[in-house]
Structures are given as C-alpha cells and as structure tokens.
Amino acid sequence: MNLLQFGEGACEKVRRYLDSYIDNELLVETNHEVLRHLEGCSACSREMESRTVLKSRLRQVVMLASVPPGLQAKVVATLHGHESERRRTWMIAVAAILLLSIGTWSIQRQGTSSSELLASIMQVGLDDHIHCAVKRTYADPPPSLSQMQSDMGPVFQGMIPVVRGKVPAEYRLEQAHLCTYKARQYTHMIFRNDAAVISVIVTRKERGESFGRVASLRQSDQGHFATAATETPDYLIFVISNLRPKENLQMAASVTPEVAAYLKSHSGV
C-alpha cells in the first residue's frame, strides 16, 4: 500500500484509509501519519471510533448468528413470486451472492471463530482505554487516594491497593474510577510514567463474551497498544498499554490473578 501524503483535503484522504488503519494494514510510516492526524482532528477521531465499534459488532453478529433453516428455499420461492423477468434475474444474482456470503461466513465461523472472538473481546477493553486513558487529559497532580476510592465506589475501592501493589512504583496512579463508554460500564485504573500509560480495566461480560477458558490469559497487539485479558465467570479483566507486548503480558500476569481473586471474594458484585 502506498505511503499516504497529507496536505489539502487531509480529512478526506485519512478517512479513505481508516478501515486499513483499524485493521493494521498500513505501512508503518502511513500508520504514523494517520495517527498524528487523528490526534489533532476530533471529527476523524470520532469517525475512527464509530468504524471500530461497527466492525466489532459485525464480527459478533456474524459469529453468533446461524444460517436459518430453509433460507435457500425461501429465497427461491420469493424470486418466483416476481413477474418481471428482468427483476427476477437481478434478484437471483443478488440472492446467489447472499447465499454464497452466508456459506462463506459459515466456513469462517468454523475455521476462525476463535481468533475473531478474541479480537472482538479485546476491542471491548481497548475502546475504553483509548477513550478514557489516551484521549482524556486529567488534572495534575492526580486526585487524592480518598477521592479515587470514592470514585471507585464502595464495592471496587478495595481493588486500588490490590492493583497498586502489583504495578511497579515508577508508575503513578493517575485515576481510579467507574466510567461508562457507549452504554457499557467499566472499573478503570490508569497508571502513567513519562513514557507509558497502563490501564487495568474490569467490565461485566455480555452475551457471547468468553474465551472459553476461565483464568486463561490471552494477548493481542492492536496497532499501537498491547492488550492482555483474562476472565472470571462474570467479568472480563484487561491490562492495556503502549508497552512492548511481552512487557504488557508480564504486567498482566502479575495483576490479573489478584484482580480475579478480589472479584471472587466479592462474588456478590
């Protein structure tokens, strides 16, 4: 793919490349140029978020949906009900494409459902990290511990010392709070030093959100962010950062068992 040259009409050019950017298909240089534009353009940034959410939801729908029984027969019966030969020919072509697509989806679900599901779940944590830890600017100095405990609420405030004890002291705790993004609630702790920002995120599972193996630790490298995640019967737990994937995974291996134990001991939450 060619290197994207910015200049006049930059927004239009960037938006043509957003899908490739989200799927991490651009050249490194072009990827950096798109990111720089997104950091300074709220309209394109919102467009990127919308496309990311749409892609994630489409993956979930395809993975969870099954081909209705008798679909082919219903399509053919509908086509025969049209008197216009020209219209019928056009609709047969559309129906053939539809059936072929459904068949392809079925094959993909059988062969790649695990990787698609992994990407979909990882996106849940990444969306909140980008929205809450990357794009937002917080007051300096950070809130007091008592204020963060209040922001976490009585149920989750006990997680602060649990996580703080596992994150190296070089990272200051910048925020600990409950937040909501796109109608989904998260428990979110943000750690930062001069070079890195780390999110520890907990959110309740929604339908179909499971790696299939509670307590296993999964990882993915999504663009500029490394994501590691595990699950309990009721929750997803994420550690997301701009650290190297190996370093982020090590951090998650230290933090997530403690968070899972905390959630288990507060099983009523």
Features:
alpha+beta; 2 domains; 6-stranded antiparallel beta sheet; globular
Characterize the structure shown.
- By secondary structure, the chain is an alpha+beta fold.
- The protein has 2 domains: 10-64; 115-265, Phosphorylase Kinase, domain 1 (2-Layer Sandwich).
- Helices cover 55% and strands 17% of the residues.
- The chain has helices at residues 10-22, 28-40, 42-64, 71-80, 85-134, 145-156, 159-164, 245-265; strands spanning 172-181, 184-192, 197-204, 218-222, 225-231, 235-241.
- Strands 1-2-3-6-5-4 form a 6-stranded antiparallel β-sheet, with helices on both faces.
- A hairpin with a 2-residue loop joins strand 4 (218-222) and strand 5.
- Helix 1 runs parallel beside helix 3, helix 2 crosses helix 3 (42-64) and helix 4 packs across helix 5 (85-134).
- The longest helix has 50 residues, at 85-134.
- The relative contact order is 0.09.
- Mean pLDDT is 80; it is low at 104-112.
Provide the CATH superfamily of the largest domain. Answer: MucB/RseB, C-terminal domain
- Indicate the structural class: alpha+beta
- CATH architectural name of the largest domain: 2-Layer Sandwich
Q: The CATH topology of the largest domain, please?
A: Phosphorylase Kinase, domain 1
Q: In percent, how much strand structure appears in the residues? A: 15-25%
Gyration radius from CA atoms, angstroms: 22 Å
Task: Give average pLDDT, whole number.
Answer: 80
Biggest sheet: strands, sense, closure?
6 strands, antiparallel
End-to-end CA span: 48 Å
* The first-level CATH class name of the largest domain: Alpha Beta
- The H/E string reads HHHHHHHEEEEEEH
